Amino acid sequence: DTGVSQNPRHKITKRGQNVTFRCDPISEHNRLYWYRQTLGQGPEFLTYFQNEAQLEKSRLLSDRFSAERPKGSFSTLEIQRTEQGDSAMYLCASSGGGREAGVDEQFFGPGTRLTVL
Amino acid sequence: SQQGEEDPQALSIQEGENATMNCSYKTSINNLQWYRQNSGRGLVHLILIRSNEREKHSGRLRVTLDTSKKSSSLLITASRAADTASYFCPHNTNAGKSTFGDGTTLTVKP
């Protein structure tokens, strides 16, 4: 087990295009989180899943954003009709049930850096 | 604005000195965590302290929690250049999201 992984690590796209990111959590972790981080600021919560159920969504998650976790393992975050303001680092984290830590500790992936031109 | 507030925003010290950063929050919490983030990288989990704990140690790190003041502190002793990073103290009010502030940027000069 190598921790939380995210793909791609970098994505450059043109305004108006759709992009999809993938997150593979630590195996056996039943909770998965998505955050967005812009330069000089802390991560902002977007959404989280418990198994395959999406339990909470931030108001930041406009209708252009959608996240799925179909089998309760990996998750995808899709942004439709990207805008320049979507440029940010998108971070995924997982927690719960892992052998490493208690229930509430979140382990973060390296992030996907999105640049919208 | 974010709920968690780290203080100071920036801290610069010499290698070998201790670094203390503080964190405040506004609501009742289940736990509070400290993370480190090197420039442009992901977050590394340092310590989790639960609401019924007052102090916790891990190597050169010491975390305190005062729920009556809704505040926490992180002390890094004998700092090293490799400790240069941003430090965050998100807190959880339930099993869901962590609420982050904008962090303390620590610079340790060799």
Furnish the topology, listing elements before pairings:
The complex is a heterodimer of chains A (117) and B (110).
Chain A: E1 5-7, E2 10-13, E3 19-24, E4 31-37, E5 44-50, E6 53-57, E7 65-68, E8 75-79, E9 88-95, E10 107-108, E11 112-116
Parallel strand pairs in A: 2-11
Antiparallel strand pairs in A: 1-3, 3-8, 4-5, 4-9, 5-6, 7-8, 9-10, 9-11
Chain B: E1 5-7, E2 10-14, E3 19-24, E4 31-37, E5 43-50, E6 55-58, E7 61-66, E8 71-76, E9 85-88, E10 91-92, E11 98-99, E12 104-109
Parallel strand pairs in B: 2-12
Antiparallel strand pairs in B: 1-3, 3-8, 4-5, 4-9, 4-10, 6-7, 7-8, 9-12, 10-11
Features of this protein?
heterodimer; A: seven-stranded mixed beta sheet; four-stranded antiparallel beta sheet; 48% strand; globular; B: 110 residues; seven-stranded mixed beta sheet; 12 strands
Give a description of the structure:
The complex is a heterodimer of chains A (117) and B (110). Chain A is an all-beta fold and 117 residues long. Chain A has no helices and eleven strands. Chain A has strands spanning 5-7, 10-13, 19-24, 31-37, 44-50, 53-57, 65-68, 75-79, 88-95, 107-108, 112-116. In chain A, strands 2, 4, 5, 6, 9, 10 and 11 form a seven-stranded mixed β-sheet that branches. In chain A, strands 1-3-8-7 form a four-stranded antiparallel β-sheet, with no helix packed on it. Chain A is globular and about 35 Å long. The termini of chain A are far apart. Chain B is globular, with a radius of gyration of 13 Å. Chain B is mainly β and 110 residues long. In chain B, a hairpin with a 5-residue loop joins strand 10 (91-92) and strand 11 (98-99). Chain B is built from no helices and twelve strands. In chain B, strands 2, 4, 5, 9, 10, 11 and 12 form a seven-stranded mixed β-sheet that branches. A five-stranded antiparallel β-sheet of chain B has the order 1-3-8-7-6, with no helix packed on it.
